[in-house]
Amino acid sequence: MASYSHAEPLEHHQEEHPPEPHYSSRVSPSVLGMFLFIASEIMLFGAFFTAYFFVRVVNGTPWPTPPFHLPIYVAFINTCILVTSSFTMHWALQSVKRGNVFGLRAGLLLTFLMGLTFLITQAIEYSRVGFNTSDGAFATIFFCLTGLHGVHVFIGLTILLFMTIRAFRGHFSPEHHHGVEIGGIYWHFVDVMWIVVYMTVYIL
To answer: What would the pLDDT profile of 165-183 be if each residue is shown by its tens digit?
Structure first.
């Protein structure tokens, strides 16, 4: 009688795992993707700044065009609020890396509240500024640049809202905090871009 062996190779019983992904760069794909997205957004802002250059420099349009005035003081306060929010965002990221749950939650919540304050203040100033897009090239470029940035702030606030909710639910840890890092990169971009808009539109 022929005998059959039921023994199988040991490796067949071991659970197989896919190999660890190999990155050709030290930057993770998610962070690299955010940087590429920001690069495309910079080009979008660049198109509007080009229009600003032609309106103000090439055509010599008065800035602001009389009798209109720009709310420089309010814009300065808004700038201080947004710059401060970058520091609280950085605090949140450093806190999660150290396992400081309170710092993470407080930093994200403060960042969200300051961003919301910025957006509400800008909307109030729109209602009081005294001109609209039909009042010449100056007004059109003003609303296009500041409005484009306002849209980005709104997107950033949406990201911050989800980040804050996840933080209060305990979804982040020192080992898993890419959501905070990627959202922070976008928020810093929004802050830096506002400084450029503020200096160009309100100060120069």
So the answer is: 999 998 888 888 888 999 9
